[in-house]
Amino acid sequence: MSDYFWFEGIPFPDTVYKREIIEESHDKFVIRDEDTVIVSYPMSGNNWLIEIVCLIQNKGNPKWIQSVLIWERSSWIETKKGLPILINTEGPRLMSSHLPLHLFPKSFFRSKAKVIYVIRNPRDVLVSAYFFLHNTKIIDNPESLGTYIEWFLKGNVPYGSWFEHTRNWLSMRENDNFLLLSYEDMKKDSINIKICDFLGKKLEPDELDLVLKYSSFQAMKENKMSNFSLVSEDVVNNGLVLMRKGITGDWKNHFTVAQAEAFDKVFQERMAGFPPGLFPWK
Ligand code: PPS
């Protein structure tokens, strides 16, 4: 199993992260006005949105998504492999991050760069992460979902507390260069028009159809550039599956009634004050 280092209250597994890189991305990395960053708490649909944005940028042509690895098309700001790629990329860059707001590159707040922040029902995020992490060397395996729920509610998981992450990023939601999306909304085909508008792209109806086609769950599951089957063996145990189920509400198949009630209580406490319509899940 991976060792951790703690940085500003957040545990980062050594397999993928290094303290100096996190510091450099926060203090020195320059985000430029023309850049676009896709940000989410892990397991919220980040890779799905990367695929959609890559397709929008190419008017639905799948050549790029089928020939370049997804983490090279939209590299991760905070990872050992991602930051050097981004530093050496010229022109408008597409990039990804799971960083909480307080660790995000300082340069962003002086720029006009665009951020799309994706949220997802945290119960589904939790179930998705539980099954995903089983196949990695990223964390110690929790013995049961119940144990993972305890860790998640305390924020003792990679990238820390979902509640903190979401509360803090949502404080940006009135900004012009910030688009809030939810995984639940992404299930509606029309969402791609909203993404195009935000990115200043105009696609024809047949091009939008291609975006939908090539970013579908099935198409991404079959695309080895996107389905994580090529993640290196130092991170993976035996066969990493990113594309697990791709549905909303799977938590109902896994939580007990008592676990659901305990989760609701924490959610109500920690997310008090936000308009109810902001979280489009049941
Ligand atoms: S990561 O590794 O933290 O960046 O994971 P992330 O990409 O954010 O989230 C993984 C979950 O997103 C689902 N996914 C999709 N759902 C529907 N359609 C498409 N095209 C799609 N692509 C990815 C993926 O299946 C994970 O969710 P679960 O619930 O585990 O299936």
From TrEMBL:
Pfam families hit by this protein: Sulfotransfer_1 (PF00685)
Keyword hit for Signal: no
Gene Ontology CC annotations of this record: cytoplasm
Entries under InterPro entries matching the protein: P-loop_NTPase (IPR027417), Sulfotransferase_dom (IPR000863)
Keyword Transferase annotated: yes
Family: Belongs to the sulfotransferase 1 family.
Name under which the protein is recorded: Sulfotransferase
Organism: Peromyscus maniculatus bairdii
